[in-house]
Each structure stands twice: as C-alpha cells, then as structure tokens.
C-alpha cells in the first residue's frame, strides 16, 4: 500500500510562519563550478571555431551524425511538411492557440509618439523592433509546441524581421508537432542544435548562424548558464526557476479541481512548487483527501508526490486580507483566485506573473491557449518582472528636435547645470546655441 503523501501544513497565525514560508520558497538556481566551466569552454570554442565547434559538440552531446552545419539546418519546407504529418486535431489546436495568442499580443504593441512644445521643439519616442531574435526550444522526446507559439508569436507581432529557432534532435529524434508549431508561428529559420553551443552560436554568430539581438526560451542548466554568460552581448528573457502555482480558495470550489490544479504544476518536475492558501481549515482537509485519492491515477505520480512533499504546502489564513498578504509575499508565477468574487480581490494583488480569475479558470488554459503569454517570472521575481510580451522585442529611442528658440532656452539651463558639474565643453556646446550670445 502506498504511503500517505506528507504535504506540509502551515498556519499564517504561527509566530514562526514567515521563517517557515521563506524556507519553503527558497530556491537557488546556481550552476556548480564544473557546469560553469564547461559552459565557458563551449562558448569560447564556438567563438573561436564557429560552425566547426557547433558541429563537433552536436555530434558529441546529441549523438547526431552531422558532417557539417548544412546537415543541421531545416528549410521552411520541412516545417510545412511537419504541419501535414501531425493529426488534424493537433493542427486545429495549434492554429486555434496561435490565433488567440496573436490576438492578445497585438494589443501590447507600442507605437512611436511625439509632442510639440510651444516654441516648436519636438520631443518623443521612436519604437522599433529588434532585427533578429533567437528562440531556444527543448528537443527530443520533450514536446513543447506551446513554448514555440508563446515565444515566436510576440516577436513576429513586434515586427522582428527574422526569428531563428534552435532545437536539439538527440539521436536524430525530431518532434513533428514542435516543427509544426514553428510553421504556424512564422519562424523563419531552424537549426537542429542545442545546449550551450546553440546559445553561443546565437549570441556571437557563426559562418551559418547569424547573430541575434535577444535569446528567449527555456532550457536545461547548461542552457540557463550559457544565457547568463552571454547576457550583455545579447538580451535574454529571464533565468527561469521551477514552475509554481499558488491557489487561493475560499472553500467553495470542488476540492478535486483544486487538487488537480496543484498537480498541474507539480507534474513538471520534482522542484516545481504548488501551494494552496485558504481561510477554511476544513477545505484544506478536503483538498488533502482529494490529493490522496487522485494521485494514484496520475501518470507522473512519483514526480508529483516528490514535488508536493518537498516544496508544496497547504496554508491556513485568517481572512481575505491575510490571504492577499501571503500571495504578495510569495509573488507567484501563476496565481489562481478560486473565489466567489475575484474582481473584489484583484486590487489587493500586487505581485503575480499571471492571475487566473474565478473557479472555472484553470491555470492550464493559460499554458496553452487562453492568449496571454505563459513565459512568466518565477522565484518571486514577479515583484519586479513581467510576462514575456511584444514589448520584449521592441526597443525605444528618445527623440529630441529643438527649434532655435527651444535650443536657446534649454541652453541656459543646461549651461548652469554643466558648469556646476565642471563639464565646460558641455556648457559651451549648449551656450553656442543661445540667442544673442
């Protein structure tokens, strides 16, 4: 008989609650010295030897018999072929999801703007897309077509001229639905490479891989470590930690639904985090019973069990105010407000990657097809970070166009401030344009 699952219980009224919560939330996404050095060596090799190094690492790490980079390039026709190889049901789901994701992100697109002051001076902001973006997609048996849509579509909506996808094919395993998603999302170029070598190729360029301006997309510890090292040479989306869900429930939702919502994150991996907060102690007990009942029915039961026992929790709070306080302290990647009137709660939520409102809005809908992006800040970074969006693929340039009168008037102010900083050339440059001087 399987042992009962030992998911921790916390009470926000406990004097040591803050300490226990901090311990529960602690997560260090740190590469060890061996991984760090290996990644640095790979990056250096790609910088020095370009395609040859990428081919060599792909042969060694992925077991792919490639003789040159030409063997690691997939033409657009191959993506279109993948779209015909998947089932009609899968194709319809991809196209529906893509349409919804595109529609949502089109509303995020920022436009250039200017305004004219009384003296004719024009000030404003010019918004332009990045020239080229790189999308990392895990490969092999792992299938993440949703990540392709969520990363590539905002870039295309932003107007990025070229979206380059890298996806490893360990031992030659090609995932057709991932390639089909790339076709639907409008990916321009695909290389069947992965790991730190793919990140280095995107960041620095090789004979075959053109350098990109930003790298987005999830990957393993080698990919995350490489993204850390190339940041500054290129932009990156984020260094993501394990997936998280925080469910706040008033006790009125079916406990089986809530248990499955917790499972939906716990099944990602053993380090994922699922937390339930409720002011109803009896409801916490009912959810715990649902967890015990439903866990044996799950394909990834052992992963879920480990995740819930190591990093999960059922937290009792006094009321709505304390529930919101705990939620803001956690700043979760995914927050479900499974309550009677979520609109009343929303003004009190300050930190969350995505907020799922009401009893019917399962987090899983956001992962695939609701429309908002599923690339979200983790590990409490929702305190200062936002979901991936069109704005991540646009940049802003300030516009300053002074009239003669404007330059004269501003020149007097600039002169005083520049001389106060002992920057005489600054002052004189402004003073040359002051009328009558």
Major β-sheet profile: 6 strands, parallel
Q: What is the approximate shape? A: globular
Q: What is the strand tally?
A: 15
Distance linking N and C termini = 93 Å
The stretches of 5 or more residues where confidence is low (pLDDT under 50) are none
Number of helices: 17
Which percent range fits the helix content? 40-55%
Per DSSP, what share of the residues sits in E-state strands of 2 or more residues?
Answer: 15-25%
Cofactor: Zn(2+)
GO cellular component, one term: cytosol
InterPro entries: Ald_DH/histidinol_DH, Histidinol_DH_CS, Histidinol_DH_monofunct, Hstdl_DH
Binding site for substrate: 243, 265, 268, 334, 367, 421, 426
Question: Please, could you describe this protein's structure?
Answer:
This protein has 437 residues and is α/β, with parallel strands linked by helices. It has helices spanning 17-25, 33-49, 51-62, 76-85, 88-106, 145-158, 176-185, 195-204, 221-230, 255-266, 281-294, 301-311, 320-330, 342-345, 363-368, 404-420, 424-431; strands at 8-11, 73-74, 113-116, 122-129, 132-136, 162-166, 189-191, 214-216, 235-236, 244-249, 273-278, 313-316, 334-338, 354-357, 394-401. A six-stranded parallel β-sheet has the order 1-12-11-10-13-14, with helices on both faces. Strands 2-7-6-5-8-9 form a six-stranded mixed β-sheet, with helices on both faces. Helix 2 packs across helix 8, helix 5 (88-106) runs parallel beside helix 7 (176-185) and helix 6 packs parallel to helix 7 (176-185). The chain is globular. GO terms for molecular function: histidinol dehydrogenase activity; NAD binding; zinc ion binding.
């Amino acid at each position: 008989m399987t042992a009962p699952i030992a998911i921790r219980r916390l009470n926000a009224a406990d004097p040591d609650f803050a300490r226990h919560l901090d311990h529960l939330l602690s997560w260090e996404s740190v590469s060890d010295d061996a991984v760090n050095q290996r990644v640095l060596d790979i990056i250096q090799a790609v910088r020095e030897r370009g395609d040859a190094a990428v081919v060599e690492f792909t042969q060694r790490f992925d077991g792919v018999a490639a003789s040159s980079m030409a063997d690691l390039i997939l033409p657009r026709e191959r993506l279109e072929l993948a779209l015909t190889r998947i089932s009609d049901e899968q194709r319809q789901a991809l196209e529906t999801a893509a349409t919804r994701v595109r529609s949502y992100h089109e509303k995020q697109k920022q436009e250039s703007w200017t305004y004219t002051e009384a003296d004719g001076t024009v000030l404003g902001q010019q918004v332009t897309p990045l020239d080229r973006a790189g999308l990392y997609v895990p490969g092999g048996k792992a299938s993440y077509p949703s990540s392709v849509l969520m990363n590539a579509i905002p870039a295309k909506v932003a107007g990025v001229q070229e979206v380059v996808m890298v996806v490893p094919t360990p031992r030659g395993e090609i995932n057709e639905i991932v390639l089909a998603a790339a076709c639907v999302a409008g990916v321009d170029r695909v290389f069947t490479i992965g790991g730190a070598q793919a990140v280095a190729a995107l960041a620095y360029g090789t004979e075959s891989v053109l350098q990109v301006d930003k790298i987005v997309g999830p990957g393993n510890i080698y990919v995350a470590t490489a993204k850390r090292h190339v940041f500054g040479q290129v932009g990156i989306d984020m260094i993501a930690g394990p997936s998280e869900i925080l469910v706040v429930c008033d006790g009125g939702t079916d406990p089986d639904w809530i248990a499955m919502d917790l499972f939906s994150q716990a099944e990602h991996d053993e380090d994922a985090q699922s937390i339930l907060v409720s002011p109803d102690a009896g409801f916490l007990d009912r959810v715990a019973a649902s967890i015990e009942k439903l866990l044996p029915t799950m394909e990834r039961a052992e992963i879920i069990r480990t995740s819930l026992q190591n990093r999960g929790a059922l937290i009792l709070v006094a009321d709505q105010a304390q529930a919101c306080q705990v939620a803001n302290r956690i700043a979760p990647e995914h927050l479900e407000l499974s309550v009677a009137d979520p609109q009343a709660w929303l003004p009190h939520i300050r930190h969350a990657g995505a907020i799922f409102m009401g009893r019917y809005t399962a987090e899983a809908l956001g992962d695939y097809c609701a429309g908002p992006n599923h690339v979200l800040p983790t590990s409490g970074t929702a305190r200062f970070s936002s979901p991936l969006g069109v704005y991540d693929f646009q940049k802003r340039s300030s516009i300053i166009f002074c009239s003669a009168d404007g330059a004269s008037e501003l020149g007097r102010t600039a002169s005083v401030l520049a001389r106060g900083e002992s920057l005489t050339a600054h002052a004189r440059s402004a003073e040359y344009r002051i009328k009558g001087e």
